[in-house]
């Protein structure tokens, strides 16, 4: 696997011989590592879970890269699970074939790029622990007006303040590691994708970019005025049955009316000062992959407040492309595309879109 490993090496001074004996070089000093602050995690890779003060049963998992050093600012990717999911199964959804040991898992790709990864937990539904050990959880991603579904379920209908939860999570995280405020990113799947859109609207002061998968900006029905520039990479399958690409009636666990991809993209293009018509490019197929799907990139030009791109995954259903097929196509629509390496595409986008 590809890991960026930062190691402090003492330089060996090699001096040329000028006589019978070479002068012995003084050993180069080894830089001292700054002591970790109270509560901070020590240098190196780590995987830990932490509670969020004021938010019982809403802990998060943190995965640190080998390059982590106390006091050195670190990029962070916050990941939001889908409706009915939890932080544990979200990690698996991002892995090719559901293999947590795969180099293609989002957390492994991001850590190889020197980024920390956080898997956040939504609000648990009563009795959900009987069905899933981690609980059946949802995010309040907005909606619930003008005939559109409240995305998603109990968290939305109960008006849970998940923006406040996310801010509290980031505050706790800042006691564990040195967070690079210019490089905090969000992604999510389905309901979690819609939550990432909401954060782009309401917490652009904390996030530099989002890369939602399979969910659109339901929150924008109530208005969306980011306080700072933010970049958007939107990923969605054209045969998604749970969140229809064209919007309108759909749903897997909860049926209702959904905002379309086109509405979401038009909104972000307008907010970010982009040209209205994107440039379309069909991406070449991945080697040895022939699954009947393809990827089209829509890139908006002239943006003044953050780039806007869309990866249209033609033939993909309600899946994280090249991830874990967690249910049958009859429920989710289409098929899972393996033409897009989702984790690497979004990590590359994040790396290119830090705050100024």
Entry keywords:
about 350 residues; ten-stranded mixed sheet; two-stranded antiparallel sheet; 9 helices; about 20% helix; globular; disordered N terminus
Summarize, please.
This protein is an alpha/beta fold and 356 residues long. It has 9 helices and 14 strands.
Describe the overall structure.
It is a single chain. Helix 2 runs parallel beside helix 9. The chain has helices at 87-93, 106-112, 128-131, 153-157, 162-176, 191-202, 261-271, 329-332, 342-351, and strands at residues 46-52, 55-64, 74-80, 115-119, 123-124, 137-138, 179-189, 209-213, 231-237, 248-250, 256-258, 279-282, 294-299, 308-314. The chain has a single domain (46-351), classed as Alpha/Beta hydrolase fold, catalytic domain (Rossmann fold, 3-Layer(aba) Sandwich). A hairpin with an 8-residue loop joins strand 13 (294-299) and strand 14. Mean pLDDT is 90; it is low at 1-32. The strands form 3 sheets. It has a 10-stranded mixed beta sheet with strand order 1-2-4-3-7-8-9-14-13-12, sandwiched between helices. The protein has a two-stranded antiparallel sheet with strand order 5-6. A two-stranded antiparallel ribbon has the order 10-11. The protein contains 9 helices and 14 strands. The chain is globular, with a radius of gyration of 22 Å. By secondary structure, the protein is an alpha/beta fold. 21% of the residues lie in helices and 22% in strands.
